[in-house]
Design a protein that fits this description.
4-stranded mixed β-sheet; alpha+beta; 6-stranded antiparallel β-sheet; 11 helices; D-Maltodextrin-Binding Protein, domain 2; 309 residues
Length: 309
């Protein structure tokens, strides 16, 4: 079994200084296109890959009370690493705000922590095949009990920033159901989940287009809010992907192949049940959003571009 290399937490300031203080990154690249710090070639021909593990993103990636990295995406990374003979992953715990710029700069090769596919990510990075899914639900007042997207016709939704992952999914659903006319106030800031739910209960909004996991976390200790609201079954699933430095196409291809194998042998489904309390791959299949892992080939690596049109 491989030995995993774990590095301690880096503050955002240190991360920034690491990639702004160097005119040119060093190290080898397995893509042959560029040399970046995140890819160091070893004497045996393998590469040590520095990976950003985002902290504070439970149940996807986080550091537990004993200082150990945990979560669905962290275990997915380890499972992929086991399959890649050419690469050895070195894990570094990083703040979520610091990671994107550092991946672009080549300080880290990639990260994964329930990352949705968005136009900005597709432009700034290359993305993996879906390594997980985020089921999307409709949270409404119990008197309304919305169950399908068509129920949102003429209704008001809790606002989301335009570049938020859920906003992208909402736009995709709206394109699929053009006759559904809902309203959503513009905003550039995130509305806390609890405030959004309170807005639904008070009648300020009719529906929160969100996730059951977030909803359950709010109402688990608040019976009155649970009794006043209804959470639908998933109406769709958003694919979650690894965000990878643009130069590392060979690494992306290797990650994709390993991920497809992990789906086909049932590993991803087991990790999902362990960390997400559900088989999100089965949910994706039921909502007809499951990626075709069996039919994947390298010429389909840019699969996500078609979902953003």
């Amino acid at each position: 079994m491989k030995k995993y290399i774990i590095s301690s937490v880096l503050t955002a300031g240190l991360v920034v200084s690491m990639f702004t203080g160097c005119g040119k990154a060093s190290g080898g690249s397995a893509s042959g296109k560029s040399s970046i710090a995140a890819m160091q070639k070893n004497s045996d021909g393998t590469y040590t890959v520095t990976v950003a593990v985002l902290d504070g993103m439970a149940p996807y990636t986080y550091t537990d009370k004993d200082g150990k990295m945990q979560g669905y995406d962290f275990e997915w990374m380890k499972a992929v690493d086991e399959k890649l003979k050419k690469y050895k992953f070195k894990y570094v715990s990083v703040g979520a705000d610091a990671a994107p710029a550092a991946i672009q700069a080549g300080t880290y090769a990639f990260s994964a922590s329930a990352h949705f596919v968005t136009p900005a990510r597709a432009q700034q990075f290359i993305l993996s095949v879906p390594e997980s899914y985020y089921p999307v639900n409709l949270i409404s007042r119990k008197a309304d009990s919305f169950k399908k997207f068509e129920d949102l016709d003429g209704k008001s939704l809790v606002p989301n920033p335009p570049n938020d992952g859920l906003s992208v999914v909402l736009k995709q659903m709206a394109a699929k159901y053009p006759n559904v006319k809902y309203t959503q106030d513009p905003t550039s800031e995130y509305i806390p989940y609890e405030d959004g739910l309170k807005g639904v209960i008070s009648g300020k909004y009719d529906c929160w287009f969100g996730g059951k996991a977030m909803y359950d976390d709010i109402v688990k200790n608040n019976k009155s809010e649970a009794d006043a609201t209804y959470c639908s079954d998933p109406i769709t699933c958003a694919p979650c992907v690894a965000v990878i430095n643009k130069n590392l196409t060979d690494l992306r291809d290797a990650i994709n192949t390993a991920t497809c194998e992990l789906y086909k042998d049932g590993t991803l489904q087991k990790l999902s049940k362990k960390w997400l309390n559900d088989d999100v791959f089965a949910t994706a299949k039921n909502t007809k959003t499951l990626f075709d892992y069996s039919g994947y080939s390298k010429d389909k690596a840019n699969w996500y571009q078609s979902t953003l049109k």
